[in-house]
Design a protein that fits this description.
The protein is built from 10 helices and 16 strands. The chain is α/β, with parallel strands linked by helices and 339 residues long. The protein folds into 2 domains: 2-64, Alpha-Beta Plaits (2-Layer Sandwich), CATH 3.30.70.1140; 84-338, Aldolase class I (TIM Barrel, Alpha-Beta Barrel), CATH 3.20.20. Helix 5 (192-199) links the parallel strand 10 and strand 11 (205-208). The chain is elongated, with a radius of gyration of 23 Å. The chain binds phosphoenolpyruvate (PEP) and manganese (II) ion.
């Protein structure tokens, strides 16, 4: 921790703080600047008491952490960009993936028609919710186990990896049997008990950013997964709550650039839940690729008008080929490719 003193702090106050820091098990290193004095307290915060309490001292201006809250996720820990495998697909460090499919699995026909179209257009991974975390209890909650069975059928028929969401600890095993990657949704992004349990399922995890999570909270959630045994974490920016209502959420593209700089994990973008309207999905996707995202997760439906959830934001499957074509020049420009 770094303890910053107020200007004109008396020597005796600085010495007093030094002694207290030592007593707590840290080694104080004093740095005297022209205007201010700073103490670097060297020691592992996990082993000793926190120094946050010094914030309340009259002579102290601020107490700042030196170490990141997320350590193993950080780029300092691992310089190279990580690659996460979803089934046989690689994501990260130049390997780009488009994950596409309906918001919710509604029927075999719906999933099959949509999957066929997105695979033909070049998407390498299928998405589809069997368990849906809905804001209202009166809304469609997903087909549950039946949805998982349909996902398994599509996976077998098309030999394609699948991503689906886990909404509770009770069905992790069931979902992990089918899914090549487990999705943690925005609403569960800070459900630490669920994160710990999901980390032990032996599958990669796609971690959405919570709609009100700071970047630090999002990366700390990733750290939860990693320290609990899941090293294959994909971060997903899906828009945050702001005062703006023209879109469902505000896509925070700077978070993508920051997450890529701060961590070694692949970062993907969900333009569908960010925009909430399908006319913006293409421009947001282009921007996401341009800023360095490692992939996209996009909602596509064979008949969006009749979709049981998120009807306004799903790309009609008949238009998905054009969507993918439009992304090509941007991918080329930033030197990434779907493999
Ligand atoms: C989803 O991807 O199906 C979903 C519910 O997204 P989010 O958690 O980002 O709202
Ligand atoms: Mn959705």
């Amino acid at each position: 921790m770094i303890i910053v003193f107020k200007q004109h702090t008396k020597e005796s106050d600085i010495e007093d703080v030094c002694k207290k820091i030592e007593k707590l098990g840290y080694e104080p290193r004093i740095i005297k600047g022209v205007e201010r004095t700073v103490i670097g307290a060297v020691g592992d915060e996990q082993m000793h008491k926190s120094l946050e309490a010094f914030k309340a001292f009259d002579c102290v201006e601020d107490v700042l952490p030196i170490q990141k809250r997320y350590k193993i996720a950080s780029r300092e820990y691992h310089k190279e960009s990580s690659i996460v495998k979803i089934g046989d697909r690689r994501l990260g460090n130049g390997h780009f993936q488009v994950i596409a499919g309906p918001c919710a699995i509604e029927s075999y026909e719906q999933l099959k028609t949509t999957a066929e179209a997105v695979i033909k257009a070049g998407a390498g991974i299928i998405r589809g919710g069997a368990y849906k975390p809905r804001t209202s209890p009166y809304d469609f909650q997903g087909l549950g186990e039946e949805g998982l069975e349909l996902l398994q059928r599509i996976k077998d028929e098309y030999n394609v990896p699948v991503v689906t969401e886990v909404v509770g600890v009770t069905h992790i095993d069931k979902v992990a049997k089918v899914a090549d990657c487990l999705q943690i949704g925005a609403r569960n992004s800070q459900n630490y008990h669920l994160l710990e349990a999901v980390a032990g399922a032996g599958r990669p995890v796609l971690l959405k950013r919570g709609m009100s999570s700071t970047i630090e909270e999002w990366l700390s959630a990733a750290e939860y997964l990693i320290v609990n045994g899941c090293h294959d974490v994909i971060l997903c920016e899906r828009g945050i709550r702001t005062f703006e209502h023209a879109t469902r959420n505000t896509l925070d593209l700077s978070a993508v650039a920051i997450a890529k700089r701060e961590t070694h994990l692949p970062v993907i973008v969900d333009p569908s839940h960010a925009a909430g309207r399908y006319d913006l999905v293409l421009p947001l996707s282009k921007a996401a690729i341009a800023i360095g995202a490692d992939g996209l997760i996009v909602e596509v439906h064979c008949d969006p008008v009749n979709a049981v959830s998120d009807a306004a934001q799903q790309i009609p499957s008949g238009e998905f080929g054009r969507f993918m074509k439009e992304l090509e020049p941007i991918m080329k420009a930033v030197n990434v490719a779907i493999e």
